Amino acid sequence: MRRAIHTFREVQPLRTFRKELQASQRTVGFVPTMGALHEGHISLMRQAAAENTDVFVSIYVNPTQFGVNEDLDSYPKTWQEDMDKIQALNKELRARDGSGSITAIFAPITKVMYPTLPPTSEITGPGSFVTITPLGSLLEGASRPVFFRGVATVCMKLFNIVMPERVYFGQKDVQQTVVIKRMVKDFHLDTEVKIGPTEREADGLAMSSRNVYLGARRREVGVVLSRALKAAEKKYLQGKRLRADILWPANEVSTSKMMEQDDLPPSKRARVEVDYISMADPDTMEEIEVVDASKGAILSGAIKMLPLEEPQEGEDCGLGGGAVPVRLIDNIILQPIN
Ligand SMILES: Nc1ncnc2c1ncn2[C@@H]1O[C@H](COP(=O)(O)OP(=O)(O)OP(=O)(O)O)[C@@H](O)[C@H]1O
Ligand SMILES: CC(C)(CO)[C@@H](O)C(=O)[O-]
Ligand code: BAL
């Protein structure tokens, strides 16, 4: 049966629609996004459609997860392209027997999501927040202090509005998946958290909405993060278990790339800073010295691609002309070995 996609801007009409679905024993898989959709998002929607009759997608750039000096204002917005991609996915899904499809988009304005106060990005600002500590203060949380408070808060609101049977998150944001699982467990939320694999470009770069800001020169250097993590994973697969043995090749790959770029003239280089390379416990994200092979571990990292110093005439500098710094994250799960 061909079904239209409903776009909701308000909570109540969405709830009414959701209740109708529930009354007819349909199941909802929910994919929260901030838009600027790419194959990473689409693969989560595909997975959700395989496991539910109806898929709800939210498109909302949540201000409270951006720090005051972060890139909220420049976050890419591509509404029409996003709708075209979702329509194309539905066409693909409808050709498949037994598959669900995307039936609702939730695209609220901020007053709908934060009805009481203007939302704050200040650490000590007022508001009703969900905090998951210390998990949310480590790694990404150390660099972006309000990030996981904002993510957990908006996801709690979205889950309360959509009431999905299942929620879908990408492994690319691995710490986010750990935070969401913890929130669902600790608050007894009646939903199942499903994680989809990281979708990558052919050279290994993890897909991200922010990649449009990279341009060719920074794009080529940015792939260093996935290479560094791969080098570390290789050590684990070769039987190494100690932090130093696993992480040194990752640090070497990233440091030599930094030095290589620093030595180039400003007209040719794309400078990069490493924020962290981590080997952490999969449940707590605390750093570990030794991998317990029965449990595995999470290798993750974050780098910052600095603005191009001397963009060249005619060069593909990406959206923003190479002036926007771009933070890239990536991770590899060291799988348990029995
Ligand atoms: N490459 C990817 N593979 C799989 N899932 C992804 C990928 N990139 C993002 N996702 C997932 O899509 C969901 C929405 O993410 P979001 O809209 O922030 O996109 P994004 O590309 O992660 O943006 P950015 O990297 O700029 O923060 C999240 O669950 C995220 O983990
Ligand atoms: C989960 C999320 C949509 C919350 O704003 C965001 O953090 C994201 O896109 O990963
Ligand atoms: N994908 C995580 C959203 C953010 O970086 O703000």
From TrEMBL:
<protein>
    <recommendedName>
        <fullName>Pantoate--beta-alanine ligase</fullName>
        <ecNumber>6.3.2.1</ecNumber>
    </recommendedName>
</protein>
<dbReference type="InterPro" id="IPR003721">
    <property type="entry name" value="Pantoate_ligase"/>
</dbReference>
<comment type="pathway">
    <text>Cofactor biosynthesis; (R)-pantothenate biosynthesis; (R)-pantothenate from (R)-pantoate and beta-alanine: step 1/1.</text>
</comment>
<keyword id="KW-0566">Pantothenate biosynthesis</keyword>
<dbReference type="InterPro" id="IPR014729">
    <property type="entry name" value="Rossmann-like_a/b/a_fold"/>
</dbReference>
<comment type="similarity">
    <text>Belongs to the pantothenate synthetase family.</text>
</comment>
<keyword id="KW-0436">Ligase</keyword>
<keyword id="KW-0547">Nucleotide-binding</keyword>
<keyword id="KW-0067">ATP-binding</keyword>
<dbReference type="Pfam" id="PF02569">
    <property type="entry name" value="Pantoate_ligase"/>
</dbReference>
<dbReference type="InterPro" id="IPR042176">
    <property type="entry name" value="Pantoate_ligase_C"/>
</dbReference>
